[in-house]
Amino acid sequence: MVEIIEETKGKDGRRNLKVAKENLVELIKDLKSKGYDHLSLITGIDRKDRLEVVYHLHNMKENVYVVVRTETMDERMPSISSLYASANWEEREQYDMLGIVFEGHPNLKRMFLPESWVGHPLRKNYDLSKVQYVNMDEEGNDYATFDPGDGW
Amino acid sequence: MVVEGEKIDQSREWVELNIGPQHPSTHGVLRLKVKLDGETVKDVEPIIGYLHRNAEKLCEMDYYCDSLIYFDRMDYVGAMNMELGYLEAAEKVLGIPPPERAQWIRVIMAELNRIAAHLVWAGAFGLDLGMLTPFFYCFIEREKVLKRFTAVSESRQQTNYMSIGGVYQDIDDQIIYDIEQFTEEFPAKLEDIFNTFVKNDIFISRNKGVGILEPEVAIDYGVTGPMLRASGVEYDVRKAEPYLVYDKLNFDIPVSYKKDNLARFLVRFEEMRQSIRIIKQAIKKIPDGPYFNPKAKKSLMIRLRGEGEAYARTESSKGEFGVYIVADGSVKPYRVHVRSPAMRNLAVLPHLAKDVMIADLFSISGTTDLVFGEVDR
Amino acid sequence: MSVLERLAAFFAILGHYPAYILAYFFETLFMLIFVVVMLIVMIYLFRKYMARVQLRIGPNRVGKAGTLQLIADALKLVGKESILPSRRDDLPYKIAPIVVFLGLIMAFAIIPYGDFYYIGSLTITHSDVSLLLLFAALAIMPVGEVLAGVSSKNKYAVLGALRGVAKDISFEVPMMVSVLALVMMASARTNQPLNLENLISVQSIPYGIPQVIGLGVFFIAMIARAAYSPFDMSESDSELVSGHSIEYSGMRFGMFYMGMFGSIFLGSMIVSLLYLGAYNGPFSGDAGFIYLFIKAMVLVILSFTIWLSVPRIRIDRFVNMGWKYLLPAAIINLIIAGILTLGLSL
Q1: Pick from B48, B233, B324: which is nearest to A43 by CB?
Q2: How are beta strands A76-78 and B15-19 bridged, if at all?
Q3: Number of B:C CB contacts under 8 A?
Q4: Cα–Cα distance for residue pair A62/B34, rounded to 1 Å
Q5: Residue of B18, B52, B221 lying closest to A140 (CB–CB)
Q6: Interface with B, mutate which of A16, A38, A67 (most B CBs under 10 A)
Q7: Average pLDDT, stretch C216-242?
Q8: Which residue range is the domain that position A133 belongs to?
Q9: Nearest chain B Cα to C313, which residue?
Q10: Could you give all domains of chain B from N- to C-terminal order, each with its CATH number?
Q11: Helix/strand/coil for C204
């Protein structure tokens, strides 16, 4: 059995499980075998000193929800894309927006922004005053550039 | 069950075709990198983000009441559903439940908008298949819905009608009469539109047995909404976890077990019929009373402070639309995350469009019902 | 009396040879003007009809009821800059729209329009093999489309051209087999069944009645030739954007556009010519042309209705249909025609 650090009930009446990063994959594998077959959402939250990642899992048959929370100090998380196909894109989105590196992800590229974009916009310390421009190269792929004098 | 994507033969050289971001059938700014073997699609890689505005960051920077306009612009053909999704979460965080009358008004508006969104989809789907005419029939009917929206909110598409703790303004008898009129007239028109599609042999042959989505795969990819129901999973947030007053209304969840394009088409049309049913009941049951919670007076709106966190799910026209708000006790949300149903539905496209003809690639991507304001946010 | 002789008589004062040169020139000019005017009328009609079907109003700004809209559009197309792709094959790229338009004009020139009061018919229709000439001219247009597709150096265009070739091969064989049945039937009555005028004059009843299957096959082939819905796979605007003509703009695109509408009209003309008795009708006499025109127009409206009400068929299904259904149907039609010719001597 996986060690659960803390179990609470959220404001919306859902079970909240808090686990250590190392036990995450094991817990989610365990939950999946119990019927939580639908990964609703992966959310990364920038808590300034650490990054929190929240997994909303849903049991389609019994219609129950469970929220799994975990934290990382070094921007690294184990990937669960081998368990849920939908985790593939969601982890890419969180990597794009918050810079969380999901280890073991088969194709960890940015989801929305071009590859050469500097910074991760949903971080609290992301500097909005620095302007970046998106251009298209010969192949039709996007890349980002910036004007060095523009606050950089 | 995790579906392993079949790896294509790398030793061979495939014709690479770049479809989009500007293309008539990508419903906005989807880009597809397609590997072709003659006419057969071997591999599809969707590339998104051309309409990315980072609405989540914008929400973090704005007051709770102001963030609503970003949600209007997500699924821009179903703005009411988007507002509803946000408010369901925001009101839990702020602790301001809407009064009874506002809830009924919201149900009516959300269902009207579901009809409008499905009509846009049906018209665009016809265009994907090369049918010009039904597009106009659909948009004429949709315009009638938008006329009702203009009456209640003074805006056609980006209505911004619902507000924290209720709705922006009350609906009077004239508007109720107009909506009733619409529910009387629309079903016959809907059958007309329905028949222009399904009484066409070529339409049936293009869609029957194309794009089969197994229910296990659909759940694994996080597909929801009409696409999931067309794969034979009877799951609708309105029934599974009723919000507003959906538990007091009598309606059915349309399910098809055929799993193909045609099933998705039929499910969406049946949903419109059910929406009409809901509106007809709601108009009769709508109670008198205040239309907004006095705690959310307009002058006090920006001083509202949220506590804790909430994840609210609603059934938008695309599927399960979830909004996750984390509050830290200030006047602005700490983190807003949107579960975009269309993005999850798009993620399954590479699986569906394997070894199909180019023509079928577009009919499959048509049935996923993409609106890029929502996919890219 | 033909147009040519009338014109030659008009110019007779200049001497024999100059008169005939001028006569040929003006004859060609008349024909060209007729075709272009017909195309403009057709496109206007189509846009109005489409608007009515789709519960819209259609063109209504330029001129009375939008009648001058097409002129405005043509001027716009002419005035537009023709953007050339840098990696094109220059010569084929530039002649492709001309080939398409030329094929259309040539096919129109071969059609016998019947005697219209004093105007008469065009010279070339008196050829003994005008039926063969007509189908030779019809085969020119696909060449232009393939040239356009390959020389644009665009993957969409190449795919469009490939689809076009696959489509052409699969409908042209059944089309020619059904025409063969016509010639067979006509050869019982005349020595020159390949002469279109003879072919028409021996139709005591229109051949569309004994050869209903042939009429159907031929009409489907003509729809496929004109490449509109449901058989617009080669230029499907929602898949291949516009197929072979994707890299064309300005007047070059205008030529493809006219070629498409022209082939709808041409197809209707040919069907009414071969199967519906052409310019024959009660009290036709001097006004035979009007009969041909009315029959063609009915078919054009029918084509538009088909266009506006059905989705696009998939290319593999069309190829299947061509070889598995149209060809056997055409052969059955041939057998029936043979039995009718021998047994009943129609």
Answers
A1: B324
A2: unpaired
A3: 80
A4: 39
A5: B18
A6: A38
A7: 84
A8: 116-152
A9: B202
A10: 54-376 (1.10.645.10)
A11: coil
CB contact under 8 A, B357 and C55: no
Q: Are residues A54 and A120 in the same domain?
A: no
Same domain, A62 and A132: no
In a domain, A26, yes or no: yes
Number of domains in chain A: 2
For residues B266 and B122, the answer to whether their CB atoms sit within 8 Å is no
A11, A38, A111: residue with CB nearest B49: A111
Whether residues A141 and A108 fall in one domain: no
Q: How far apart are CA B100 and CA B355, in angstroms?
A: 52
A45 contacts on B by Cβ (under 8 Å): 326, 334-335
Q: Are residues A71 and A39 in the same domain?
A: yes
Closest approach of chain A CAs to the CA of B346, in angstroms?
A: 10
A143 part of a folded domain: yes
Q: Where in chain C are the domains? A: 1-79, 93-344
pLDDT tens, residue by residue, B112-129: 999 999 999 999 898 888
**ipTM of the complex model:** 0.87
Q: Are residues A12 and A26 in the same domain?
A: yes
Question: CA-CA distances (angstroms) from residue B143 to A150, B155, B174, B184?
Answer: 46, 12, 18, 16
Do both A102 and A123 map to the same domain? Answer: no
pLDDT in tens, A41-95: 888 888 888 888 888 888 888 888 888 888 888 888 888 888 888 888 888 888 8
In a domain, A1, yes or no: no
Residue A107 shares a structural domain with residue A52 = yes
List all residues of chain B from 86 to 105 with a beta carbon under 8 Å from chain A.
92-93
A71 touches chain B (CB under 8 A): no
> For A141, how many CA atoms within 13 A lie in the half-sphere containing its CB?
9
Residue in this structure with the two tokens 């093999």, named with its chain if needed: C129
Q: Find the closest chain C residue to B137 by CA distance.
A: C54
